[in-house]
Amino acid sequence: MAAAVGAAGAAWAVTQDDPAATASTTTAEAAVGTYEETVASTGTFQPAETAELSFAVSGEVLSVDVAVGDVVVAGQALATVGTETLDAELTAAEAALDAALERLDSDTDAGATDTQLAADEASVAAAESRVAQATEALDDATLTSTIAGTVASVDVAVGDEVSGSSASSGSTGSTGSAGATGATGASSTTPSTGTGAQITVITTDAFVVETSVGSADLSRLQEGLQAELTPSDGGEVVYGTVSSVGLVASSSTSGAATFPVEIAVTGAVDGVYAGGSADVSIIVEQRADVLTVPTAAVATTDGATTVTVVSEDGSQVETPVEIGTSFGIQTEIVSGLEAGAEVVVPMAIRGGGGGGGGGEDGEELPPGSRFPGGEFPGGGGFPGGGAPNGGQG
Predict the structure, then answer these.
(1) Are 8 and 146 found together in one domain?
(2) What number of other Cβ atoms are within 10 A of residue 343's Cβ?
(3) H helix intervals, the chain
(4) Are strands 77-81 and 59-64 parallel, antiparallel or unpaired?
(5) Do residues 175 and 211 touch, judged by C-beta distance below 8 A?
(6) Which residues are 31's β-sheet partners?
């Protein structure tokens, strides 16, 4: 959770031992604002739909009508195989059906037994089924796209001999119908998995981001939550909605259990490409009209929490308060203080000879502004380059 990380960093930076620093103060106003709590992760942009397509019949490839990068529509012909054998099979099936129908008519006219007529009707049904299968196989000699999109790969060429199969080409999470004309693949919400599809078509105007979270954050996620997605190559932020949260864990490279999360990208997707990485920030809570003061202004002694308020006459009054959520360098005040109140914020003044990369000698270092070794929160710096415990919230 981003807010928790910020709070831990701020608290650590303020309370660290620094013999070269002397006490000083500044003031800040208690202010009302809107704050978000987020779950952060990284993920990968993937096409919203992927169709991995292969011929459902055997034969020699006579034409390949598309190339990588071509834009296609659903139902468009992509490639064909020869139909000589398929034509012969259909002709034979139709002849068998004609014969079965003649036999049924003849036996009916001759007053054959019910048993014989039932056998004739069964023969007609079997012949009709064979004709239907042969007709479908002839249709399948043309490989067609099951989705509208862009051709991502072509792994078949004119003259190739292909072996048809009724098995899926490996797509999962189907959003279209398997076994579409001429294709054994199905539309899918997952990217191509390299399962040997002869032609792969993907959407390039609709994307999802696949990411994962740890068990500590899983209970906070649900479908419909909003997310900000920042392309790692420096592209503009795009937005999305959590579309699925997996409940079956897998192990990360560190051995910790992680759970898959899919985010549907909404709105414009200019500059987004399949396979690109993204920094993900899922908003798990958004609160408006929150009264906060700088975290450094809050003191807790013997279980009592207070802030020091500057009164109209300039005197300083230690005031009991009830605090709520910490938002990094800001802390929520639930009761005991009103918006606009001026509170005292401890600072540090670095003396001569101090180590670290903070201010120059004598420079004031207000909490949440500058710290030894870098800036926080803008630059996110901490002494030695890291927050305590690796910066984990």
Answers:
(1) no
(2) 24
(3) 2-15, 84-109, 114-139, 215-218
(4) antiparallel
(5) no
(6) 292
Shared domain for 94 and 19, answered yes or no, is: no
Cβ atoms of residues 333 and 289 within 8 Å = no
Q: Which residues of 189-203 are buried (b: 16+ CB within 10 A; e: fewer)?
A: bbbbeeeebbbbbbb
Q: How far, rounded to the nearest angstrom, does the alpha carbon of residue 336 sit from its chain's CA centroid?
A: 42
Query: Contact, 51 vs 185, CB < 8 A?
Result: yes
More confident of the two residues 10 and 343: 343
313 shares a domain with 217: no
Residue of higher predicted confidence among 246 and 356: 246
Give me Rg for the CA atoms of the chain: 34
Domain of residue 211 covers: 42-48+207-286
> What is the residue type of 361?
D
> What contacts 219, CB < 8 A, 6 or more positions away?
none
Which tokens go with 323? 């605090």
Q: What does the angle CA 386 – CA 387 – CA 389 come to, to the nearest 5 degrees?
A: 110
pTM score: 0.59
Strand order in the sheet with 187-188: 71-72, 149-154, 199-202, 50-53, 187-188
Indicate the DSSP class of residue 57: S
